[in-house]
Design goal:
By secondary structure, this protein is α+β, with helices and mostly antiparallel strands. It has four helices and 14 strands. It folds into two domains: about 90 residues, no CATH class; about 170 residues, no CATH class.
């Protein structure tokens, strides 16, 4: 009984996702399979030429209906199986939503080197949103900064800031669960020091990289579970902790970067 129930539920779920192909095939097969009976029924009012069963290319219509239905059903099952397979293959979306969770002002604390609280503070956090597009958890996700650029004046071009290697922006790998968006902080500016900086310790070679009031362009790569996705974000820093703004870059991705600056992307 369980065997039959499991397969019936699978067929019902498959039909709910791909209704029109199997419904159309069933309709065509029914018409071809009953066309001789329909001919006999309609012949009471309409006279057809004699000749027996209706044939198409020398094959009886009911036989064509059966063949069409079997071929179509096989195609339908392959399409449904492919859709189910895609749901189980890890896939991830990366977005930056500055008008929602991408830019958050919150109370925080300033601590000394021994993690002892010194004072309360307010801060603005800039964060990415990771969303699993599959029914499977995307495990071990890490965000890397792969390119950093700066523009002091809106009329100027962006100037590249050498990173000398990708910089990790997550303290440790994280898991992204289905239907539950996960946020990753990558920049922070506090009210007390009013200094823009990363949320994780950076290499000493990048000390003071955000000292200028400017627009910063960050190209980031999210990798995990043998897949990868990139995003480009522009941050406008005008020197006030509560007025920092940003947006996703339009038409700019890791594929637009020079070859030696592109991050290694896993094959999906």
């Amino acid at each position: 009984m369980t065997w039959f129930k499991d397969r019936w539920l699978l067929l019902r779920d498959a039909y709910s996702r791909r209704k029109w192909p199997i419904t159309f095939l069933f309709f065509v097969a029914t018409i071809l399979g009953t066309i001789d009976y329909l001919k006999e029924f309609v012949s009471r009012w309409i006279i057809f030429p004699s000749g027996g069963s209706i044939e198409i290319l020398g094959i009886r219509a009911p036989q064509i209906g059966v063949v069409i239905f079997l071929i179509g059903a096989l195609w339908w099952m392959l399409e449904v199986a492919l859709e189910f397979r895609k749901l189980l293959i890890p896939a991830i979306d990366v977005s930056f939503n500055p008008d929602a969770e991408g830019r958050v002002k919150t109370r925080t604390e300033i601590q000394d080197g021994r993690s002892v609280k010194i004072r309360d503070d307010m801060a603005t956090y800039i964060r990415l949103t990771l969303t699993s597009r599959s029914r499977k958890t995307v495990k071990g996700c890490v965000v890397f900064l792969t390119r950093l650029e700066k523009r002091l004046n809106p009329a100027d071009q962006f100037v590249d800031i050498p990173l000398q290697g990708a910089v990790p922006l997550t303290p440790q790998p994280i898991d992204v669960y289905p239907r539950v968006p996960t946020t990753v902080d990558f920049l922070k500016v506090g009210e007390y020091d009013n200094q823009l900086g990363a949320t994780v310790p950076w290499p000493f070679r990048l000390d003071g990289v955000f000292n200028d009031n400017a627009t910063y362009r960050l190209a980031m790569e999210v990798v995990g579970d043998d897949i990868g996705e990139n995003i480009c974000v522009e941050i406008d820093w005008g020197g006030k902790w509560d007025e920092i703004t940003g947006r996703e870059c339009e038409g700019v991705g890791s594929d637009d970067l020079p070859q030696d600056k592109r991050s290694m992307r896993a094959t999906k």
